[in-house]
Amino acid sequence: IVATPLALLRALRVDAREAAGAGGGRWPAGGGGGGASAGGGGGAAAAVAFYDATHASARLAWGPAERDAMVAALAVELSPLVSWIASSDQPAAFEWSSAGLDERHPPVSDAGGGLRVGGVYVAHFNAASGAGVGPTEAADLLKAFVAALSAEAAFLGRLQAEGAHRSAEAQGAAANLKQMWTSVALVLEAHPPLHAAAEAAQARRLAAGALLLLRTLEPLRVLDTLCRSAAHADALSPEEVFAPLALCASAPAAAPPALLSLGGWLRRSHHAVRTLVDGGGLLVLVLALLGGEGGEGGEGG
Fold it and tell me: Are 93 and 86 in contact (CB under 8 A)?
């Protein structure tokens, strides 16, 4: 036991396996507090199996890197205890404090979960279609995503202004933004009451700018979701109304869904129609439609 903390951890882990396999012993069935298990020791076996497995979900990314980091962290934390046990003039008691634990052992930088926002791994959250998120958690997630989107968009905008739009950093930021816009759409689609939140209006405004920044359709999904209500459609600014048309000009392949979305907003809001007309948007719309027709053959745009 007094050899090294790492050896102690390995011994405990082997002991856990043996106890689980033998049934009974020091490891109670059900894992201590989870109820009885017919397998006798199944709680310990389940814990070992969970530890050894690789997990990828919205809340947990766990694999070899995380296991190595946990063993290293435990070795550091157990070292004073091992020294205390080995000391010939031991104090009356050993004291350990959790203060500063997060600072001593920061998260694994190369965790398999990838981008993490608001406590969720974005790729896994999207893969699960945002399942398992309640109303309160969804509101917190929306706030976190809006803040992260604003910061990442500003970062990408600076890179583009500096002529570094093809750099690895710019490509990474663009990929992060696309993932996060998908997440925001999932949250808003699953939780309509959040459409009245201030963060939803902020997301709508950011999405219009993101159409031009990214030239992809992920932000359009958020605009469509929100503008199904007349309240959001009536609140569209000129920049937001014209964003789909600008997308048509910069990315002709996106013209059909962009124009379809704009048509839906105009049907729901006289304000959006007036904004389009007052801004000369009818002419732009005709040009976009003509460009879209030519784009189908690969020559438009």
Answer: no
CA angle 113/165/204 to nearest 5° reads: 65
Per-residue b or e along 219-239, where b marks 16 or more CB atoms closer than 10 Å to that residue's CB: bbbbbbbbbbbeebbebbeee
Sign of CA dihedral 142, 144, 148, 150: positive
Q: Which residues pair with 103 in a beta bridge?
A: none
CA angle, corner 155, sides to 154 and 157, nearest 5?
Answer: 65
CA distance 254 to 80: 61
Q: Is the pTM higher than 0.90?
A: no
Q: What is the pLDDT of residues 157-205, one digit of tens each?
A: 999 999 998 899 999 999 999 999 999 999 999 999 999 999 999 999 9
Rounded-to-integer distance, Cα 181 and Cα 17, Å: 44
> What angle (nearest 5°) sits at the alpha carbon of residue 84, between those of residues 81 and 85?
90
Tens-place pLDDT, residues 112-142:
558 889 888 898 899 889 888 889 999 999 9
On the 0-12 / 13-18 / 19+ scale of CB atoms within 10 A, 269 is buried
